[in-house]
Write a structure and sequence with these properties.
Elements: H1 2-16, H2 53-56, H3 75-106, H4 111-135, H5 141-159, H6 161-166, H7 201-215, H8 221-229, H9 232-260, H10 287-303, H11 313-318, H12 339-347, H13 350-380, H14 385-413, H15 418-428, E1 451-453, E2 458-459, E3 467-470, E4 479-483, E5 497-501, H16 511-527, H17 529-539, H18 545-561, H19 563-573, E6 576-581, E7 587-592, H20 594-622
Antiparallel strand pairs: 1-2, 1-5, 3-4, 4-5, 6-7
Helix pairs in contact: 3-4, 3-5, 3-9, 3-10, 4-7, 4-18, 5-7, 5-10, 8-9, 9-14, 9-17, 13-14, 13-17, 13-18, 13-19, 13-20, 14-16, 15-17, 15-20, 17-18
Length: 648
Amino acid sequence: MASSDSESEVSTAYAKEGYSEKGEMQDNDAPAEPKSTSKYQTDDAADDEVLDEEELKLYGYGSCRPKHMQLFHNSKGFLFAISLYCFTHGMAIGLFYIMISTIEQRFNLTSRQGASISRSYDLFGMLFVMFVSYFGEHGHKPRLIGISAIIFSLGSLTFTFPHYLAGPYNPEEGPIFDTCDVNRTVTDQCVGDDDNLQKYYAVFIVAQMLHALGASTIFNLGLTHIDENVTRGTAAVYTGIFWSVAVLGPSVGLVAGGVYLDTFVDVFADNIPITPESPFWVGCWWLGFVGTSFFAAYNAFPLLGYNRRLPGYTKAQKKRRNETRLGCQFQSQSKISQFPKAVLALLKNPTYVLITVGVIAEAFIIAFVSVFGPKILESLFNLKTINAALLAGLSITPAGIIGPLLGGYLLKRYKMTVSQTLKFCAYSEDQFNLTASCNSLCKCEDEYDPVCGSDGIMYYSACHAGCTVEKNETKGAKEYSECACIPPVDGSLEDYGTAKANRCGTDCAYLIPFLVVAFFSFLFTYLVPVPYITATMRCVDYSQRNFALGVQTFFNKGLGVVPGPIAFGALLNRACLLWEYECDGSQNCWLYDNSQMTIYLVLMISACRLVSILAFTGAALTYKPPKDGAYQEDGNKALYDVEMTGLS
């Protein structure tokens, strides 16, 4: 009896607040059974509007849909939830890029294996995104994104397994030969590696596969779900916010990774025999991935509570214009038999194809500058590696955050059509011999550890500078004397010069202007994503928006993100003056011809920018708007007449 009274009270409370017992919003003034079962009335009056059935459902899980949880049941709540997931995803990417060299050292992986772990994420992503975007178009998008967050969480957790399985790290610090020593015994540095640790290489690949599968829903299902539940102008602003968070995540991951690397890999170890300055130091590379695993699983919880439709869906759909390019209508039903036809329909849309070409060109620039930007600054302005990375981040990250926000605002402020959006996209954007007579007897190792001589010239290492005496460290920098290859300073009574660890400083006055120009260049580059995403979803059939973004991502990764750094790296190799060879046969360049590097950099960026401008201009010229009045919703065959002035 008590139970019955309790249920009655709950029913009464829901009724007073305007909700049914099933947790659906109800209009107390409306008749119990509306005459029309259609999602839309032909009358444009607001009073005759019939809401979507999914839009009436409350936020929650099964029968648990309490009133206080409805605070998140709106487009802003969904944007916040998916942005948190996107931020976590970006953090994992940033952590990986700063940790990969430490992972190689800890598990004796070669540079090629480290690079393949990195590339596997993009390769698996290309495979998954096509099918997830195609079959997810008519699925429960928030639920699919929530499930993918759980998969991503498992990927980050799997990434930490080698740390637990390999056991404690026992550094065996051997002698470090900095100075010239004619009595040194030269040993083969490529002998003695523990190949047993390389078995964990496969674990990292599996973890990256799970990462790729988990991330395959973020940038297509997430953006299309936002687009279909809010008005056009609001969608542009929300996309800008989402994209800015996507840029912020990796930056935070890089900073957090630097902090973790100052902590020893075995956080509970006692009596650590080495310091972070030792070349045998291994930082806590795994701890950040424990965090991303937890946060991704935590992000899944709010995402799984959303329904297929958000409040405001009906209003947004009534104001939506049909902007599918004339002659490119296609009714996708997400059936496997229709997959080839769906791909062909996109490839026969010249506007879509040209937008994709422009996107690839922009991705090419962002990809190789993200990888080589710090190295370019380091070489051009003779900076320390950590300072070059910091300055590169300070010039690129703010542009990546401000650009999408500004792009989304401009689209909403000026209510740009597809043609105007595409026009906006178009106009936004010799070998060294290290052995000399002065160091021929020094038996120097091939480890690159530059020092700055008292003559202002940088040397490969203290040993190659012929230095025989190492002084005490001053402010963290080692000093050397009796350097046979360095002439004495004028007026000095010494026979030889001195040297200090690290590169020589530079008096170049163009560093700040260079960073300012780089900031504005990337600001215009990051203005493009929101307009091109918006144009992509508008120029294809409504039922193909999600698949169009998926196919675009496939080509974006396959022809832009993956080959971009490879192509530019091959070009930079032609400007290399000094190579260091690894045990696996790979090589690293330590010194570049700056004039050649600058020429290659300008040529590459100019070529990509020209392709981008021509592609977006061509897309604007080939776009043909449909006849006024036609509206097609979510793949259904019914057409509705709507007012064409309903932009917001």
